[in-house]
Amino acid sequence: MDSISIEGTPKTPTISLDAGTGIVEIKGRSIPENSIEFYKPIVEWLEDYSKEPQKLTTVNIQLEYFNTSSSKCILDVFKKLEGIKKARNEVVINWYYEEDDEDMLEAGEDYESIIRIPFKMIEIVD
Amino acid sequence: MSFNIEKLFNEMKTGEILLAYKGSITAELITNVLGVVETKLNHVIEKSSTKKKIYNILVESLQNLYHHVDDLPDSLNNMDVHFGIFIVARDGEDYNIRTGNFIKTEKVGKLKERFDKIKSLSKEELKELYRFVLNNQMFSEKGGGGLGLIDIAKRTDGRISYQFDKCDSDYSFFRMAIIV
User: Fold this and answer.
1) What is the Cβ-side half-sphere exposure of residue B54, based on CA atoms within 13 angstroms?
2) Interface contact A10-B127, CB threshold 8 A
Protein backbone atom coordinates (compact mmCIF):
# COMPACT_ATOMS: atom_id res chain seq x y z
CA MET A 1 0.00 0.00 0.00
CA ASP A 2 1.01 3.60 -0.52
CA SER A 3 2.74 5.67 2.07
CA ILE A 4 1.62 9.20 2.86
CA SER A 5 3.78 12.19 3.46
CA ILE A 6 2.29 15.64 4.10
CA GLU A 7 4.40 18.69 4.73
CA GLY A 8 3.54 20.85 7.72
CA THR A 9 2.08 24.37 7.57
CA PRO A 10 1.65 26.99 10.34
CA LYS A 11 -1.70 25.37 11.16
CA THR A 12 -1.23 21.70 10.24
CA PRO A 13 1.36 19.10 11.24
CA THR A 14 3.91 17.18 9.20
CA ILE A 15 2.56 13.70 8.58
CA SER A 16 4.48 10.61 7.61
CA LEU A 17 2.72 7.26 7.30
CA ASP A 18 4.97 4.47 6.09
CA ALA A 19 3.36 1.08 5.50
CA GLY A 20 6.74 -0.55 4.73
CA THR A 21 8.40 0.31 8.03
CA GLY A 22 5.25 0.60 10.15
CA ILE A 23 6.28 4.07 11.31
CA VAL A 24 3.56 6.67 11.85
CA GLU A 25 4.60 10.24 12.62
CA ILE A 26 2.67 13.41 13.43
CA LYS A 27 4.81 16.43 14.19
CA GLY A 28 4.39 20.16 14.59
CA ARG A 29 1.20 22.15 15.04
CA SER A 30 -2.33 21.02 14.61
CA ILE A 31 -4.60 24.05 14.89
CA PRO A 32 -6.75 24.11 11.72
CA GLU A 33 -10.30 25.49 11.85
CA ASN A 34 -11.52 22.33 10.15
CA SER A 35 -9.61 19.38 11.56
CA ILE A 36 -11.97 16.69 10.31
CA GLU A 37 -11.07 17.51 6.72
CA PHE A 38 -7.34 17.42 7.46
CA TYR A 39 -7.37 14.13 9.39
CA LYS A 40 -9.74 12.25 7.09
CA PRO A 41 -7.04 10.81 4.76
CA ILE A 42 -4.91 9.87 7.77
CA VAL A 43 -7.68 7.96 9.50
CA GLU A 44 -8.56 6.28 6.20
CA TRP A 45 -4.94 5.27 5.62
CA LEU A 46 -4.80 3.71 9.09
CA GLU A 47 -8.02 1.86 8.37
CA ASP A 48 -6.38 0.30 5.28
CA TYR A 49 -3.09 -0.29 7.06
CA SER A 50 -4.85 -2.08 9.92
CA LYS A 51 -5.92 -4.83 7.51
CA GLU A 52 -2.29 -5.83 7.00
CA PRO A 53 -0.10 -4.08 9.54
CA GLN A 54 3.56 -4.64 10.31
CA LYS A 55 4.29 -6.80 13.34
CA LEU A 56 5.50 -3.66 15.05
CA THR A 57 3.95 -0.26 14.45
CA THR A 58 5.87 2.65 15.92
CA VAL A 59 3.99 5.89 16.44
CA ASN A 60 5.80 9.15 17.09
CA ILE A 61 3.64 12.08 18.14
CA GLN A 62 5.53 15.29 18.61
CA LEU A 63 3.10 18.18 18.76
CA GLU A 64 3.94 21.69 19.75
CA TYR A 65 0.33 22.83 19.81
CA PHE A 66 -3.01 21.29 19.04
CA ASN A 67 -6.50 22.76 19.28
CA THR A 68 -9.58 21.07 20.71
CA SER A 69 -10.94 20.66 17.19
CA SER A 70 -7.90 18.44 16.44
CA SER A 71 -8.12 16.59 19.73
CA LYS A 72 -11.04 14.40 18.68
CA CYS A 73 -9.37 13.63 15.33
CA ILE A 74 -6.17 12.63 17.11
CA LEU A 75 -8.29 10.36 19.31
CA ASP A 76 -9.68 8.79 16.13
CA VAL A 77 -6.09 8.10 15.03
CA PHE A 78 -5.38 6.43 18.37
CA LYS A 79 -8.58 4.38 18.16
CA LYS A 80 -7.38 2.94 14.85
CA LEU A 81 -4.05 2.08 16.49
CA GLU A 82 -5.89 0.49 19.40
CA GLY A 83 -7.64 -1.74 16.85
CA ILE A 84 -4.27 -2.81 15.41
CA LYS A 85 -3.05 -3.71 18.87
CA LYS A 86 -6.23 -5.60 19.71
CA ALA A 87 -5.57 -7.76 16.65
CA ARG A 88 -2.41 -8.92 18.44
CA ASN A 89 0.14 -6.70 16.79
CA GLU A 90 2.68 -4.67 18.66
CA VAL A 91 2.06 -0.91 18.80
CA VAL A 92 4.49 1.45 20.47
CA ILE A 93 3.40 5.04 21.04
CA ASN A 94 6.03 7.65 21.76
CA TRP A 95 4.52 10.92 23.02
CA TYR A 96 7.04 13.73 22.89
CA TYR A 97 6.64 16.92 24.90
CA GLU A 98 8.92 19.85 25.42
CA GLU A 99 10.61 20.43 28.74
CA ASP A 100 8.21 22.13 31.22
CA ASP A 101 5.23 21.68 28.93
CA GLU A 102 2.99 20.15 31.59
CA ASP A 103 -0.13 20.73 29.50
CA MET A 104 1.23 18.63 26.64
CA LEU A 105 2.31 15.85 29.02
CA GLU A 106 -1.19 15.89 30.52
CA ALA A 107 -2.71 15.73 27.03
CA GLY A 108 -0.73 12.53 26.43
CA GLU A 109 -2.00 11.12 29.72
CA ASP A 110 -5.58 12.00 28.70
CA TYR A 111 -5.25 9.90 25.55
CA GLU A 112 -3.45 7.10 27.35
CA SER A 113 -6.33 6.86 29.85
CA ILE A 114 -8.86 6.53 27.04
CA ILE A 115 -7.19 4.14 24.61
CA ARG A 116 -5.40 1.82 26.99
CA ILE A 117 -2.15 1.47 25.09
CA PRO A 118 0.76 2.48 27.31
CA PHE A 119 2.46 5.65 26.10
CA LYS A 120 6.15 6.25 26.32
CA MET A 121 6.39 9.87 27.50
CA ILE A 122 9.54 11.45 26.16
CA GLU A 123 10.67 14.85 27.36
CA ILE A 124 12.57 16.88 24.80
CA VAL A 125 15.31 18.82 26.50
CA ASP A 126 16.97 21.67 24.58
CA MET B 1 -29.56 53.79 26.95
CA SER B 2 -28.54 52.41 23.59
CA PHE B 3 -25.82 49.90 22.99
CA ASN B 4 -22.55 51.40 21.79
CA ILE B 5 -19.90 49.07 20.43
CA GLU B 6 -17.16 51.73 20.34
CA LYS B 7 -17.68 52.51 24.00
CA LEU B 8 -17.61 48.85 24.87
CA PHE B 9 -14.44 48.22 22.83
CA ASN B 10 -12.75 51.08 24.69
CA GLU B 11 -13.90 49.69 28.03
CA MET B 12 -12.33 46.37 27.14
CA LYS B 13 -8.97 47.96 26.33
CA THR B 14 -7.54 48.17 29.82
CA GLY B 15 -3.98 47.38 30.80
CA GLU B 16 -1.01 47.41 28.47
CA ILE B 17 -2.43 46.45 25.08
CA LEU B 18 -0.39 44.02 23.01
CA LEU B 19 -3.11 43.66 20.43
CA ALA B 20 -6.65 44.87 19.94
CA TYR B 21 -8.91 43.95 17.05
CA LYS B 22 -12.49 44.71 16.12
CA GLY B 23 -13.98 43.42 12.88
CA SER B 24 -14.54 40.32 10.77
CA ILE B 25 -13.20 37.07 12.18
CA THR B 26 -11.94 34.94 9.28
CA ALA B 27 -9.57 31.96 9.09
CA GLU B 28 -6.95 34.12 7.35
CA LEU B 29 -7.21 36.76 10.05
CA ILE B 30 -6.66 34.12 12.73
CA THR B 31 -3.56 32.82 10.95
CA ASN B 32 -2.14 36.34 10.69
CA VAL B 33 -2.96 37.27 14.27
CA LEU B 34 -1.38 34.11 15.64
CA GLY B 35 1.78 34.90 13.69
CA VAL B 36 1.93 38.45 15.04
CA VAL B 37 1.18 37.44 18.62
CA GLU B 38 3.74 34.67 18.57
CA THR B 39 6.47 37.08 17.50
CA LYS B 40 5.36 39.53 20.17
CA LEU B 41 5.26 36.90 22.90
CA ASN B 42 8.76 35.79 21.96
CA HIS B 43 9.92 39.32 22.69
CA VAL B 44 8.14 39.89 25.98
CA ILE B 45 8.08 36.48 27.70
CA GLU B 46 11.03 34.37 28.67
CA LYS B 47 9.32 31.26 29.93
CA SER B 48 8.42 28.90 27.11
CA SER B 49 5.56 27.23 29.01
CA THR B 50 3.84 30.58 29.67
CA LYS B 51 4.15 31.52 26.00
CA LYS B 52 2.62 28.22 25.01
CA LYS B 53 -0.23 28.58 27.44
CA ILE B 54 -1.12 32.02 26.10
CA TYR B 55 -0.79 30.85 22.50
CA ASN B 56 -2.99 27.82 23.12
CA ILE B 57 -5.70 29.87 24.81
CA LEU B 58 -5.55 32.41 22.04
CA VAL B 59 -6.06 29.68 19.43
CA GLU B 60 -9.07 28.31 21.31
CA SER B 61 -10.69 31.66 21.98
CA LEU B 62 -10.20 32.94 18.41
CA GLN B 63 -11.54 29.74 16.93
CA ASN B 64 -14.45 29.88 19.36
CA LEU B 65 -15.23 33.30 17.91
CA TYR B 66 -14.78 32.00 14.38
CA HIS B 67 -17.18 29.10 14.89
CA HIS B 68 -19.81 30.66 17.11
CA VAL B 69 -20.35 34.26 16.08
CA ASP B 70 -24.03 34.86 15.33
CA ASP B 71 -25.27 37.07 12.54
CA LEU B 72 -25.56 40.69 13.43
CA PRO B 73 -28.64 42.36 14.86
CA ASP B 74 -30.53 44.57 12.39
CA SER B 75 -29.80 47.63 14.46
CA LEU B 76 -26.08 47.10 13.80
CA ASN B 77 -26.18 45.94 10.22
CA ASN B 78 -23.67 48.58 9.19
CA MET B 79 -20.90 46.49 10.74
CA ASP B 80 -18.69 43.73 9.35
CA VAL B 81 -20.16 40.28 8.99
CA HIS B 82 -18.78 37.71 11.39
CA PHE B 83 -17.98 40.51 13.77
CA GLY B 84 -15.88 39.92 16.83
CA ILE B 85 -13.54 41.69 19.21
CA PHE B 86 -10.40 40.36 20.80
CA ILE B 87 -7.74 41.90 22.92
CA VAL B 88 -4.47 40.68 24.36
CA ALA B 89 -3.25 42.81 27.23
CA ARG B 90 -0.73 42.67 30.01
CA ASP B 91 -1.77 43.62 33.51
CA GLY B 92 1.20 43.43 35.85
CA GLU B 93 2.27 39.80 35.95
CA ASP B 94 -0.90 38.57 34.31
CA TYR B 95 -1.86 38.28 30.68
CA ASN B 96 -5.44 38.93 29.71
CA ILE B 97 -7.23 37.60 26.69
CA ARG B 98 -10.62 39.23 26.10
CA THR B 99 -13.11 38.39 23.42
CA GLY B 100 -16.51 39.76 22.48
CA ASN B 101 -19.22 38.77 20.04
CA PHE B 102 -22.94 39.05 19.41
CA ILE B 103 -25.19 36.20 20.33
CA LYS B 104 -28.91 35.72 20.22
CA THR B 105 -30.34 36.54 23.65
CA GLU B 106 -32.24 33.25 23.67
CA LYS B 107 -28.86 31.46 23.96
CA VAL B 108 -27.67 33.49 26.93
CA GLY B 109 -29.26 31.38 29.65
CA LYS B 110 -27.72 28.16 28.40
CA LEU B 111 -24.28 29.69 27.96
CA LYS B 112 -24.38 31.21 31.46
CA GLU B 113 -25.33 27.86 32.91
CA ARG B 114 -22.43 26.19 31.08
CA PHE B 115 -19.95 28.81 32.25
CA ASP B 116 -21.06 28.62 35.86
CA LYS B 117 -20.87 24.83 35.82
CA ILE B 118 -17.33 24.85 34.39
CA LYS B 119 -16.21 27.58 36.77
CA SER B 120 -17.47 25.61 39.76
CA LEU B 121 -15.35 22.55 38.98
CA SER B 122 -12.07 21.68 40.67
CA LYS B 123 -8.92 20.98 38.66
CA GLU B 124 -9.47 17.26 39.00
CA GLU B 125 -13.13 17.52 38.00
CA LEU B 126 -12.22 19.60 34.93
CA LYS B 127 -9.74 16.94 33.89
CA GLU B 128 -12.40 14.26 34.25
CA LEU B 129 -14.92 16.32 32.29
CA TYR B 130 -12.40 16.98 29.52
CA ARG B 131 -11.68 13.26 29.17
CA PHE B 132 -15.35 12.41 29.22
CA VAL B 133 -16.31 14.94 26.54
CA LEU B 134 -13.30 14.02 24.40
CA ASN B 135 -14.26 10.37 24.44
CA ASN B 136 -18.04 10.57 24.36
CA GLN B 137 -19.39 13.68 22.75
CA MET B 138 -20.08 13.86 19.06
CA PHE B 139 -18.07 16.56 17.40
CA SER B 140 -19.54 18.82 14.77
CA GLU B 141 -17.92 20.26 11.67
CA LYS B 142 -17.84 23.44 13.69
CA GLY B 143 -15.35 22.28 16.22
CA GLY B 144 -14.67 20.58 19.45
CA GLY B 145 -18.18 19.95 20.69
CA GLY B 146 -17.74 22.28 23.62
CA LEU B 147 -14.24 21.19 24.55
CA GLY B 148 -12.81 24.66 23.93
CA LEU B 149 -14.18 26.24 27.07
CA ILE B 150 -13.22 23.27 29.22
CA ASP B 151 -9.73 23.38 27.75
CA ILE B 152 -9.35 27.09 28.55
CA ALA B 153 -10.65 26.57 32.10
CA LYS B 154 -8.23 23.68 32.58
CA ARG B 155 -5.24 25.70 31.43
CA THR B 156 -6.10 28.74 33.55
CA ASP B 157 -7.45 27.05 36.69
CA GLY B 158 -10.85 28.53 35.97
CA ARG B 159 -9.77 32.17 35.76
CA ILE B 160 -12.45 33.04 33.24
CA SER B 161 -15.17 35.63 33.62
CA TYR B 162 -18.03 36.65 31.37
CA GLN B 163 -20.56 39.39 30.90
CA PHE B 164 -23.64 39.85 28.75
CA ASP B 165 -24.92 43.23 27.58
CA LYS B 166 -28.29 43.55 25.92
CA CYS B 167 -28.08 45.21 22.46
CA ASP B 168 -31.67 45.15 21.24
CA SER B 169 -34.73 42.99 21.67
CA ASP B 170 -33.08 39.87 20.16
CA TYR B 171 -29.35 40.20 20.61
CA SER B 172 -26.82 40.43 23.38
CA PHE B 173 -23.12 41.11 23.36
CA PHE B 174 -21.09 38.41 25.03
CA ARG B 175 -17.75 39.25 26.62
CA MET B 176 -15.27 36.77 27.98
CA ALA B 177 -12.10 37.60 29.89
CA ILE B 178 -9.39 35.02 30.50
CA ILE B 179 -6.48 35.55 32.84
CA VAL B 180 -3.25 33.62 32.25
Assistant:
1) 27
2) no
In sign, the C-alpha dihedral spanning A34, B127, B89, B15 is positive
For A104-115, write each residue's pLDDT tens digit.
Answer: 999 999 999 999
What pTM value is reported for the model? 0.90
Q: CA nearest B150: which of B125, B172, B175?
A: B125
Mean pLDDT of B161-173: 90
Per domain, the residue ranges of chain B are: 5-179
Q: Which amino acid is at A35?
A: S
Confidence of residue B100 (pLDDT cuts 50, 70, 90): very high
The range of the structural domain enclosing residue A91 comes to 4-124
Percent of chain B with pLDDT over 90: 54
Number of domains in chain A: 1
What CATH architecture does domain B5-179 belong to? 2-Layer Sandwich (3.30)
Choose from B63, B69, B149 for mutation: most chain A CBs within 10 A.
Answer: B63
In which residue ranges of chain A is pLDDT below 50?
none
Chain centroid to CA B5: how far?
Answer: 17
3-state secondary structure of B22: strand
Q: Measured between CB atoms, does B143 come within 8 Å of chain A?
A: yes
Per-residue confidence (pLDDT) for residue A78, from 0 to 100: 97
CATH of the domain at A27: 3.30.750
Query: Between A and B, how many residue pairs show a Cβ–Cβ distance under 8 A?
Result: 72
Least Cα separation, residue B125 to chain A (angstroms): 13
Tell me if chain A has a CB within 8 Å of the CB of B59: yes
